[in-house]
Specification:
- β7 and β8 (about 265-270) form a beta hairpin.
- The strands form two sheets. Strands 3-4-2-1-5 form a five-stranded mixed sheet. A three-stranded antiparallel sheet has the order 6-7-8.
- The chain starts with a strand and ends in a 12-residue tail after the last helix.
- It is globular.
- The chain has helices at about 25-35, 55-65, 70-75, 100-115, 120-135, 145-160, 165-180, 205-215, 220-230, 235-240, 275-285, 300-315, 325-335, 340-350, 355, 365-370; strands spanning about 5-15, 15-20, 40, 45-50, 70, 245-250, 255, 265-270.
- α4 (about 100-115) crosses α7 (about 165-180), α8 (about 205-215) crosses α12 (about 300-315) and α9 (about 220-230) crosses α11 (about 275-285).
- The chain is built from 16 helices and eight strands.
């Protein structure tokens, strides 16, 4: 399995010289970039950091064990120096930077979240948001920030960085967690604004498209991965963390441990996956994880995504689908076959039935029973 690579390159940005972080879309690599304080450029389509003597070492340390860092372009092309400002009559005093207090605050937040058993990805996302808040108000210690300071940062994220509603929601959750749980001051963040929720319809493949997708995969291991994603409505993170003991083949069930919200649940295994799964186990003989990568570690999320996209292209599916589309398709197809919405909610591990109800809006068979009022008009 080829290692993931993060390429560092000089970037000419409207804010001045920057260091670009180039890598394929990967949730884990993005979370690390956010934790470093990197910002997303819609124009250049890259994450970027301010240049400095510590930038490259910090990137190396952050991605150690996660990805290979290629900084050849940084050595070949010196980072341009910013144009000096016009002469000033007096140099303004430099605002104090509370670096030590910020790092101590982030470390306290990390420990608190680890004790609460948050997932590593959630911890990275929350720490990244808190780090950005502290950097935005670098002249103030974190514990001295007011609700007005926090709202100014939110306004910056919404109007200048133009983050999506989901990213703004994550930022609010991270800040609320720090002040309410770490500092014990929930009143400070009680009234900060939350973005309005977006209700986007999920992308769903037809049953014929799912069948074509699975038939297009010749590799036994890869085919079993995609079959399980669809058979049980699994999230990608749940698939790669499956262990051998999570298979209940005699009952046709799959145990999902530590899913979203650190919840266990039981979902479907599917009869048609039993034979290829048995052949896979006999051929590959995994030791711990059901699907193992190099050295017996859990399989890479990026590798599963690549398997899916190759299968989609080979099957000629033009729908802009992702691995998560198989989970949406699982729920929609169950609903179209008459499965009660409450059972689908349990299989998916949704905390609220309102989340599951979104699939009623994309069911073709349900919509097909509704007659348009146009068809009742006499247009002759």
């Amino acid at each position: 399995m080829p290692p993931r690579t993060v390429i560092l390159e000089p970037l000419s940005h409207r804010d001045g010289p920057r260091v670009a972080l180039k890598f394929p879309h990967d949730a884990e690599l993005i979370a690390i970039a956010q934790a470093l304080g990197a910002r997303w450029s819609r124009t250049h389509r890259v994450w970027h950091l301010p240049p400095g003597p510590k930038t490259v070492p910090q990137v190396f340390a952050a991605y150690k064990g996660k990805a290979w860092v290629d900084y050849a372009a940084m050595k070949a092309t010196p980072t341009p120096r910013p144009t000096p400002p016009p002469e000033r009559t007096a140099k303004p005093p430099k605002a104090p930077a509370y670096t030590q207090q910020q790092e101590a605050a982030l470390e306290a937040m990390r420990r608190k979240m680890e004790v609460a058993r948050y997932s590593p990805n959630s911890i990275q996302v929350y720490l990244g948001a808190a780090r950005q808040l502290f950097a935005f108000h670098a002249a103030k210690a974190p514990e001295r920030l007011t609700a007005a300071d926090i709202e100014a940062w939110q306004h910056h994220l919404a109007t200048e960085r133009r983050l999506s509603n989901s990213s703004l929601e994550q930022a609010v959750n991270a800040v609320r967690y720090y002040y309410a749980k770490v500092l014990g001051d929930a009143d400070r963040v009680r009234f900060i604004e939350r973005p309005r929720r977006e209700r986007k319809l999920p992308t769903v493949l037809s049953e014929d498209e799912v069948a074509a997708l699975l038939r297009s995969v010749d590799n036994l291991k890869h085919r079993c991965m995609l079959m399980l994603l669809y058979a049980g409505g699994l999230r990608l993170s749940e698939l790669i963390h499956l262990r051998l003991g999570d298979l209940a083949r005699d009952r046709g069930q799959l145990v999902v441990r530590g899913g979203k919200g650190n919840k266990d649940r039981i979902t479907l295994l599917g009869e048609k996956v039993l034979d290829p799964l048995a052949r896979y186990l006999a051929t590959y003989r995994p030791k711990h994880y059901l699907f193992e990568g190099a050295g017996g570690a859990a399989y890479s999320p990026r590798s599963v995504q690549q398997v899916f996209h190759r299968a989609r292209e080979k099957a000629g599916i033009r729908t802009p689908a992702t691995v998560h589309t198989l989970r949406h398709s699982f729920a929609t197809h169950l609903l179209e076959k008459g499965t009660d919405l409450r059972y689908i909610q349990t299989l998916l591990g949704h905390a609220s039935s309102r989340t599951t109800e979104i699939y009623t809006h994309v069911s073709n068979k349900a919509l097909g029973k509704i007659r348009s009022p146009l068809d009742d008009l006499d247009l002759g």
